[in-house]
Design a protein that fits this description.
five-stranded mixed β-barrel; 206 residues; alpha+beta; Archaeosine Trna-guanine Transglycosylase, Chain: A, domain 4; 34% helix; 26% strand
């Protein structure tokens, strides 16, 4: 990641997860984050996505994911509709004091061996993974078109599910902190099982 800046604007957003290779659409409307987008577009188009530790807290988790703005559109009502492509996980080093209303940080990038670049398809059971997804979504009452899941390559499927599933802030952070993508897939299944057991116990009690 030598070609990427180590000083980036950071967007703290609770419950939102960006992973390397993932694509995240965002609707930007707050004035301070409009300024952040303008800054990013005038520099290298990088934004760090990270979660606050608590709602409305300035304290952030130490690990986030850097994304690059790949598409953007400025609307008639002065919003930005953007898409971020996940590039690499990063760690916060220090906050930079500056005159802008958004937050700027010195960061370091996570080494590739601890990122999501390598995926061992031999130990990934895609059919079992998809069955877990379908059962989880059905139990949660979500209406999602699952027919295309079989056509998505394994790595993209795991990353997409990690990003879109309605896990808690701490669970989202646990997914981001997985050392590799196979661990990520197994962690997602564990979270599915935990939530399904909770739902089943609730239904049994009631």
């Amino acid at each position: 990641m030598h070609n990427l800046s180590n000083q980036i604007p950071v967007f703290p957003l609770s419950g939102v997860l960006l992973l390397p290779s993932g694509s995240l659409p965002l609707n930007i409307f707050e004035p301070r984050y409009i300024s952040m987008i303008n800054y990013s577009l005038s520099h290298d188009k990088l934004i760090g996505m990270i979660q606050p530790k608590n709602e409305n807290s300035k304290e952030l988790f130490n690990l986030g994911c850097v994304g690059k703005i790949t598409t953007y559109n400025e609307t008639d009502d002065n919003r930005y509709i953007i898409s971020l492509k996940g590039l690499s996980k990063f760690k916060i080093i220090s906050e930079i004091q500056h005159s802008e209303v958004f937050r700027l940080f010195n960061i370091e990038y996570v080494k590739k061996e601890n990122d999501f670049n390598k995926f061992d398809n031999k130990i990934f059971n895609k059919q079992r993974f998809i069955e877990k997804i379908k059962f989880f979504f059905k139990k949660k009452g979500f209406v999602v078109n699952l027919d295309s899941f079989d056509q998505i390559n394994n790595k993209s499927l795991v990353i997409m599910i990690a990003m879109i599933c309605p896990f808690s802030v701490n669970e989202k952070q646990a997914l981001l902190e997985c050392k590799n993508i196979n661990t990520l897939a197994n962690t997602i299944i564990s979270l599915f099982d935990f939530e399904l057991n909770r739902i089943n116990n609730y239904e049994t009690i009631n």
